[in-house]
Amino acid sequence: MTSNPLADIIASKGWCVADGATGTNLFARGLETGYPPELWSVERPDDILWLHNSFLDAGSDLILTNSFGGNSFRLKLHHAQDRVSELNIAAARLARQSADAHLAKTGRQVVVAGSMGPTGELFEPLGPLTHSDAVQGFAEQANALAEGGVDVLWIETMSSNEEVVAAIEAAKPTGLPICSTMTFDTASRSMMGVMPADFASFAVAQGADFIGANCGIGPAELMHSVQGILPAAGTKPVVA
């Protein structure tokens, strides 16, 4: 098992400030609606470096790679499903470059987290996606992010436990620490009906090192979801 720099930051400070919002900032740089930002890691790397550097200058302890939709299922919508490794390695290397430069300049250690978002597919029996296909797809992304130099794999914005378990199973062989978050709506349920406490217990049992809630419809509902996660989290740090 590799070291866990995210846990080190939390142990020393009591918290860790992540970055955001990627989409909002890239739209301001000219990203068009419907265009995959993951392609910018090779097409417009200077804009991605600008994004990471802006977050670091603002005080982020953790930056996420530009790879949220970097799995083959999402990239297939843009005929880029054969570029998973290329795009994720590029995204990881850009974030690593920014983090290393920031460390050299300021002496402040920053965590690079490899962003792994949902497939956008429904699992059997509601849809066509099988567990094995999901694991294979997530593994391709996880391995590429690890090769690119991330410190943590950040499985985020999930809505079903089936997708959580597939992503965690795919991430484990890298040996990297794993974060898993789910997104919840006004009824404190994910799109697939999962409650925060149930997700937390499930993700911890699957081996996630950090768990939490992200995205959703605003800070109030996010905090409500996090309050549901905390009792089930045990000693695991919780992400909001």
pLDDT averaged over residues? 95
Classify the secondary structure makeup into a structural class.
Answer: alpha/beta
Tell how many strands the DSSP assignment holds: 6
Task: Please tally the helical runs, counting DSSP H or I stretches of 4 or more residues.
Answer: 10
Query: Reading side by side through the largest sheet, how are the strands ordered?
Result: 1-2-3-4-5-6
Secondary-structure element order, N to C: HHHHEHHEHEHEHEHE
Parts with pLDDT < 50 across at least 5 consecutive residues: none
- Taking Cα atoms only, what radius of gyration do you get, to the nearest Å? 17 Å
Q: Name the shape in a single word.
A: globular
Percent of sequence in beta strands:
5-15%
Give the end-to-end Cα distance, rounded to a whole number of Å.
26 Å
Summarize the amount of helix as a percent range.
40-55%
Task: Fill in the keyword field for this structure.
single chain; 240 residues; alpha/beta; globular
Verbal overview:
- The structure is a single chain.
- β5, α10 and β6 form a beta-alpha-beta unit.
- α4 packs parallel to α6.
- It contains ten helices and six strands; from the N terminus they run ααααβααβαβαβαβαβ.
- It has 240 residues and is of the alpha/beta class.
- Helices cover 48% and strands 11% of the residues.
- It has a six-stranded parallel β-sheet with strand order 1-2-3-4-5-6.
